[in-house]
Design goal:
Layout lengths: L24 H13 L13 E4 L4 H12 L10 E7 L8 E3 L5 E3 L2 E3 L3 H10 L3 E2 L2 H5 L2 H4 L2 H8 L4 E7 L4 H11 L7 E6 L8 H16 L3 H13 L12 H11 L4 E10 L14 E9 L8 H21 L19 E8 L2 E8 L6 H13 L15 E8 L3 E3 L11 E6 L2 E5 L1 H7 L3 H12 L11 E5 L1 E5 L1
Parallel strand pairs: 1-8, 2-7, 2-8, 3-6
Antiparallel strand pairs: 1-10, 3-7, 4-5, 9-10, 11-12, 11-13, 13-18, 14-17, 15-16, 15-17
Helix pairs in contact: 7-10, 8-9, 11-12
Length: 475
């Protein structure tokens, strides 16, 4: 079904408005408001989800469950991109089709598509293709968009993907191509309904087994569950997961990684107040995927290892002029996880360098060794020499994950460090800065905004603010 690329941008119109959900902006907003008012609340203390599994039937049937899925997005969440994976109900074709001709439209307005990334994926990965027809006649992606618009407004870029394959190997290839984008700055939405057309109670049973297999985060377990459901010969069961290829792709992305799947809400079409027929139903689950949370602490053994590795890296660099290859972790805990770190170098009690970074793609073990060398070479200070090593003292600050805040009142001086970001400008202060300077909260923010981020004294007022905590130790 590969077609010629369109020369001019062509938006994807809301083909299923008035069929699966209201066609007028006012009616759609009203229905979404009611659905979210009755949706399952986010789990307390959770970070924003990395992925959601949401149904795609008409809103009168699956709307309450879909709203519960999207309601797991916290009010202050920000996502750079939203990837929607939906399995085609109309066509069978190789791989997956990425819409890159223009934007998607709904009665609530346009959803901007990241056409540049879409074209990059198509050109670099044979498993993707340009195939606008696959999108034109598919409802399962479109119906997710109003929920996203309600929660996120227009502050995200969309990557719309329709899977045409029914081959697990191709799902694995799609997952391999998309895995680099499965990060906290992006959201993945997987569109699927569960069992189709069994009786009410059979659906509840089948759908729970399928949901448990998904939550195992094991692709083989999901495929096994689908096969076992088929072998049970349940009356009128056509499929137990219509979007199984999209869900399988997600599991190929998340398998063997530290993610937690959470069951949020379940209903089936028999629960619909207006049209509930319990003889032949379709099942709907809302599931969410979060990064596993670990208690933020650094043991005495881990502190000792971090100090030794930082000191060894600096010594090797000062004596040879070369960066050493990071030595592997010796302890099984936080050194093996992604965590930010700052290293400060003191000589006879005088600061001679301070460099750090937030968690990106490196584990703490590797990042601390790299930051130690950078701190020893901090251009703002006189360079250290090998002869300084006996008098050198290190201070290491291991950072907790960043937490976005909506008010400076959430900052606790002495406990929280701050990270200020606006556009390409950013700046940070560690928690101990407020203690050492005696600054007020306003001074803490003002100095960071002006001196670190380059935004001016009051620039923080229009920037995005984050807090973090730090475990600080010397040696």
């Amino acid at each position: 079904m590969e077609t010629g690329r369109l020369r001019n941008p062509l938006n994807r119109e809301p083909v299923f408005a008035g069929k699966f959900y209201p066609a007028s902006e006012h009616s759609l907003k009203s229905q979404l408001k009611e659905l979210f008012e009755n949706a399952k609340s986010p789990s307390p203390g959770r970070n924003q989800p990395l992925a959601l599994i949401s149904p795609h039937a008409g809103y009168v049937f699956s709307g309450p469950v879909a709203a519960s899925a999207f309601n797991q997005i916290p009010p202050n969440a920000f996502y750079k991109r939203v990837f929607i994976l939906a399995s085609s109900h109309q066509f069978l074709f190789k791989g997956a089709a990425i819409f890159d001709s223009g934007n998607y439209k709904t009665p609530l307005g346009e959803v901007k598509v990241d056409t540049d990334l879409g074209r990059e994926l198509i050109s670099s990965c044979p498993v993707f293709q340009h195939n606008p027809e696959a999108h034109q006649f598919e409802h399962s992606l479109e119906v997710q968009l109003p929920f996203l618009q309600h929660k996120l407004g227009t502050h995200f870029l969309l990557i719309p993907i329709i899977l045409g394959t029914n081959n697990p190997d191709e799902c694995r290839q799609i997952a391999h191509a998309l895995k680099p984008y499965f990060t906290p700055e992006n959201l993945f939405v997987i569109s699927t309904d569960f069992s189709h057309y069994p009786e009410y109670q059979d659906a509840i049973d089948i759908d729970l087994q399928t949901a448990r297999a998904i939550c195992s985060n094991t692709p083989a377990q999901l495929l096994k569950a689908l096969d076992e459901n088929k072998k049970r010969k349940i009356s009128h069961l056509k499929t137990s997961l219509c979007g199984w290829t999209s869900v399988l792709t997600l599991l190929y992305i998340t398998e063997n990684e530290e993610f937690e799947f959470q069951k949020i809400n379940y209903q089936n079409s028999g629960d619909s107040k207006l049209y509930g027929d319990k003889n032949r139903v379709v099942g709907y689950w809302a599931l969410a995927v979060f990064a596993k949370e670990h208690p933020f602490s650094v043991s005495e053994e881990e502190k000792k290892e971090l100090l030794q590795k930082a000191r060894h890296s600096i010594a090797h660099y000062l004596k040879t002029g070369r960066r050493n290859k990071p030595s592997p972790p010796e302890t099984p805990g936080i050194l093996n996880r992604q965590a930010g770190v700052f290293v400060s170098v003191y000589l006879n009690g005088e600061l001679r360098g301070c460099i750090g970074n937030f968690a990106r793609d490196e584990i703490l073990n590797d990042l601390v060794q790299r930051m130690a060398i950078s701190a020893a070479c901090d251009y703002r200070f006189k360079n250290l020499q090998a002869g300084d090593l006996p008098e050198m003292e290190l201070e290491i600050s291991v950072l907790s994950p960043l937490k976005k805040i909506t008010s400076p009142d959430e900052i606790e001086l002495g406990r929280h460090g701050i990270y200020i970001k606006k556009g390409i400008h950013s700046g940070t202060f560690l928690p101990q800065v407020a203690q050492k300077t005696g600054w007020s909260l306003h001074e803490f923010l003002g100095h960071c905004s002006r001196d670190k981020a380059g935004l001016g004294w009051d620039g923080w007022k229009t920037a995005t603010l984050y807090t973090f905590e730090a475990v600080i130790f010397r040696g």
